[in-house]
Automatic annotation (TrEMBL):
Gene3D superfamilies given in the database record: Vaccinia Virus protein VP39
Originating organism: Lapillicoccus jejuensis
Pfam families, sorted: Methyltransf_23
The keyword Zinc is assigned to this record: no
Entry protein name: Methyltransferase family protein
Family matches, as PANTHER family: METHYLTRANSFERASE (PTHR43464), UBIQUINONE BIOSYNTHESIS O-METHYLTRANSFERASE, MITOCHONDRIAL (PTHR43464:SF19)
Biased composition (Low complexity): 103-121
Single GO MF annotation: methyltransferase activity
């Protein structure tokens, strides 16, 4: 029985550790729907199998997932159907380069729809969008600045962009704590935040660097914080205890909002989360 509970327990701990992103997005969705007076049109770049997209569609929003993997998009299509939101989820195969084919601000598109048997589409993206999510993507694209500029271009005026990236300083600490000091030094001092040529992640970010990228794309940053600031240091067994979950969430919240210490602690997040706005 204990073995059967372990995957669910790990999933629960992971959800707690990323709670801050979900909570911020849920508040943003409520505010933006009230502002617009309608559900949002959302683009999820690199949304894969739809963990976020299906949740947003379940709240009534129309979500387009742009992802290069046909297998992931097929899984997304099945997941959306099982959740009863297939009519609000569109799967489009492509990557950040496809953003140049998004619709213009008058709602027109420069491409045609060509659906495939697995539910994905090779259609041009039907922008612009009220919200664009770019979670775990800037680490792997060829040019993060160009990707952010393209994302800004498919946003409605006043539209929001949610970005999550891997944090540099958390990777420094993680390697130092296990004694891999050379790798820790490389992550800290390299231009791209990598531990060396064998590092599977092309780049990592810190809060000032993420701020500069968003500024460079002409986006106004409304929210910038670390995520999983202390979560990876807390044993999963502790997070399985219902009495300690709320304490953990309160600690993470305080670490990223404390008036004196948030600037330091937030930068230690395993991930960094920003919400920015197209002026």
């Amino acid at each position: 029985m204990a073995e059967e509970r372990r995957p669910a327990a790990r999933a629960g701990a992971a959800a707690l550790r990323t709670h801050a992103v979900g909570a911020t997005l849920d508040r943003l969705l409520v505010d933006e729907q009230a502002r617009l007076g309608r559900p949002l049109r959302v683009l999820d770049l690199g949304g894969g199998t739809g963990g976020l997209a299906v949740h947003l569609a379940g709240l009534g929003h129309a979500v387009t997932v742009l992802d290069p993997s046909p297998d992931a998009l097929a899984a997304l299509t099945r997941r959306a159907a099982e959740a009863g939101v297939a009519d609000r989820v569109t799967a489009v195969q492509g990557d950040a380069d496809s953003l140049g084919h998004a619709g213009t601000s008058d709602g027109t598109s420069d491409g045609t729809s060509d659906g495939t048997s697995d539910g994905t589409s090779d259609a041009a993206l039907d922008g612009p969008y009220d919200l664009v999510c770019c979670h775990g993507v800037l680490e792997v694209v060829d040019d993060p600045a160009a990707t952010l500029a393209a994302l800004a271009g498919v946003l409605e005026p006043g539209g929001r962009l949610s970005v999550t990236v891997a944090g540099r300083l958390a990777a420094v600490l993680a390697r130092a704590l296990v004694g891999d000091l050379d790798a820790a030094l490389a992550v800290l001092t390299s231009d791209d935040g990598r531990a060396g040529s064998a590092d599977p992640l092309p780049r990592r970010f810190d809060l000032p660097g993420l701020q500069r990228l968003l500024d460079g794309a002409g986006l106004a940053v409304d929210h910038l914080q670390g995520v999983r600031v202390l979560g990876d240091l807390v044993p999963a067994a502790i997070l399985d205890d219902p009495r300690r979950r709320e304490a953990y969430l309160a600690l993470e919240e305080a670490a990223t909002t404390h008036p004196e210490h948030a600037a330091v602690l937030g930068g230690l997040g395993a991930h960094l989360h920003a919400v920015a706005r197209r002026a």
